Amino acid sequence: MCKPASMVLTKDKVFWSMNTDSHEDIIAEYKLNADGKHGPNILRVEILPPDDDMTKPPSKWVFGYDQDALPKWADAEHDEKRTRVALRDWKRCKVLAYGMHEISGNRTVYAYGSATVYAYDSSTVRAYDSATVRANDSATVYAYGSATVYAKSSATVYAYGSATVRANDIVRRYDSAGNMTIDGWVRASERGE
Question: Quick one: 87 and 160 in the same domain?
């Protein structure tokens, strides 16, 4: 399973997507030729934050290859350096912390700390800590910890831990053991809110 931040390297370029952290989707989005006559043409790499905490400085994130066979041009030191350079842009565009943010379109972001995010259309938001997300249309939100989510229309919310959800559609809740319950058509007005 691909994890953030997933990127695809060619001999001269680094590719990542606003829409996904799937290597295969990144390859398709940029129409990259993954395999050639003499083996792989690309490198699937991941650079992961320690303890899954994206607020950690990029210098602390851990780099690694996410494939067994490497192209002849692969060089771990050089590949890590250029991945770390790309990570700065990836993080600036995809990790939202503190302040108010608005996202729309086919975009995936990660919200931390006291971030407030307004998500529209087919956006996907993963909210952690005390982040607040207001999701409309077909936005998908994954809420962890004490995140608060307000969902309308056909927004889908996956809530974990002590996350609070006010929704007008389907909500999937997970307890600490990972058990799921589904509250169909939960409306804030039906709960006296």
Answer: no
